[in-house]
């Protein structure tokens, strides 16, 4: 009976994930493109030192990017990244339900562990980071690639998204410069620091007994304020992680971390522009021969080349997620 109940719960959660992703995937895709878009403030130098004017798209708003994706790539472009997002969310949910007895769905992105004690939170945080890092790389690259990726041909898609080195040595994804550090800092802040503050300011009632918890509107207001101010920390981490995740790893010394290696087995690919008739890219990317070397290097170059405001692209979405998380955490105390 317990097995049947677990399977039923997994089925319900899987359905809720699928419905949620239908709404969130296009929004996430626009957000990733906006933050990955390279929009320098002035003239740049090419690898030979010559002045090279920026010719990429200048898109500064979330809804402007959403409209641009729809215009150039159509509805199918809006749902790029659906399959890796679905798979990662399904794995995290299954782990939370089976190992931690959670009853809510989990998504890769902001880590919000189920209530399972300190060791459960630690286990979920580590497992989430282990799954989320390669999932983030594959998802963000599938969103930003100009090529059409079939939903049910993962090997074909991975040959497009990953370099030969990354396919031969998948663990090298964890060595992508600066990305692991950005993920660790994000998990530590959201899963441990914010969770500890939430437990102190908005304690959850014990199962079956809500009388031992007194809800304080003042403490809850303080926690909401902390979530809002946390945008100053989390949004830059998310922007930097986006830019670092789309950089590709190469082993050959004549290639740097983002320059394309010579493929031994070339893949015939189709671009979205072949169907839309629009001869322009959705976003522009930084020159492949001058990659970011780490988290700090990425932050410095973004500020120098694109301005500090680039670190806070779509900051209001990060803030909105924090506020909604605060109200969701307070729901058991209010009921």
From TrEMBL:
<dbReference type="InterPro" id="IPR023395">
    <property type="entry name" value="MCP_dom_sf"/>
</dbReference>
<keyword id="KW-0812">Transmembrane</keyword>
<dbReference type="InterPro" id="IPR050567">
    <property type="entry name" value="Mitochondrial_Carrier"/>
</dbReference>
<dbReference type="GO" id="GO:0000064">
    <property type="term" value="F:L-ornithine transmembrane transporter activity"/>
</dbReference>
<keyword id="KW-0496">Mitochondrion</keyword>
<keyword id="KW-0677">Repeat</keyword>
<protein>
    <recommendedName>
        <fullName>Mitochondrial carrier</fullName>
    </recommendedName>
</protein>
<feature type="transmembrane region" description="Helical">
    <location>
        <begin position="171"/>
        <end position="194"/>
    </location>
</feature>
<feature type="repeat" description="Solcar">
    <location>
        <begin position="6"/>
        <end position="106"/>
    </location>
</feature>
<dbReference type="Pfam" id="PF00153">
    <property type="entry name" value="Mito_carr"/>
</dbReference>
<comment type="similarity">
    <text>Belongs to the mitochondrial carrier (TC 2.A.29) family.</text>
</comment>
<keyword id="KW-0813">Transport</keyword>
<keyword id="KW-1133">Transmembrane helix</keyword>
<dbReference type="InterPro" id="IPR018108">
    <property type="entry name" value="MCP_transmembrane"/>
</dbReference>
<feature type="transmembrane region" description="Helical">
    <location>
        <begin position="6"/>
        <end position="32"/>
    </location>
</feature>
<feature type="transmembrane region" description="Helical">
    <location>
        <begin position="77"/>
        <end position="101"/>
    </location>
</feature>
<keyword id="KW-0472">Membrane</keyword>
<dbReference type="GO" id="GO:0031966">
    <property type="term" value="C:mitochondrial membrane"/>
</dbReference>
<feature type="transmembrane region" description="Helical">
    <location>
        <begin position="121"/>
        <end position="143"/>
    </location>
</feature>
<dbReference type="GO" id="GO:1990575">
    <property type="term" value="P:mitochondrial L-ornithine transmembrane transport"/>
</dbReference>
């Amino acid at each position: 009976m317990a097995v049947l109940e677990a399977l039923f719960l997994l089925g319900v959660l899987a359905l809720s994930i699928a419905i949620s992703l239908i709404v969130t995937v296009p929004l996430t895709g626009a957000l990733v493109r906006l933050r990955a878009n390279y929009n320098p403030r002035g003239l740049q130098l090419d690898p030979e030192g010559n002045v090279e004017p920026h010719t990429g798209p200048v898109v500064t708003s979330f809804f402007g990017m959403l409209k641009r994706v729809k215009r150039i790539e159509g509805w199918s472009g809006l749902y790029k990244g659906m399959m890796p997002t679905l798979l990662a969310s399904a794995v995290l949910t299954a782990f939370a339900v089976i190992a931690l007895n959670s009853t809510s769905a989990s998504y890769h992105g902001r880590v919000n562990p189920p209530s399972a004690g300190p060791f459960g939170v630690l286990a979920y945080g580590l497992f989430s980071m282990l799954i989320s890092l390669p999932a983030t790389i594959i998802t963000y690259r599938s969103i930003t690639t100009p090529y059409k990726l079939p939903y049910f041909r993962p090997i074909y898609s991975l040959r497009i998204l990953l370099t030969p080195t990354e396919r031969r040595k998948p663990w090298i994804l964890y060595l992508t410069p600066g990305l692991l550090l950005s993920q660790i800092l994000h998990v530590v802040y959201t899963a441990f620091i914010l969770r500890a503050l939430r437990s102190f300011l908005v304690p959850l009632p014990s199962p079956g007994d809500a009388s031992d918890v007194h809800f304080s509107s003042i403490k809850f207001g303080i926690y909401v304020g902390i979530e809002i101010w946390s945008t100053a920390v989390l949004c830059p981490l998310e922007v930097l992680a986006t830019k670092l995740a789309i950089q590709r790893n190469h082993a050959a010394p004549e290639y740097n971390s983002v320059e394309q290696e010579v493929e031994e087995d070339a893949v015939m690919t189709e671009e979205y522009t072949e169907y839309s008739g629009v001869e322009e890219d959705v976003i522009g990317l930084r020159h492949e021969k001058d990659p970011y070397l780490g988290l700090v290097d990425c932050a410095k170059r973004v500020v120098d080349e694109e301005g500090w405001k680039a670190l806070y692209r779509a900051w209001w979405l990060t803030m909105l997620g924090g506020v909604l998380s605060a109200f969701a955490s307070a729901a058991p105390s209010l009921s």
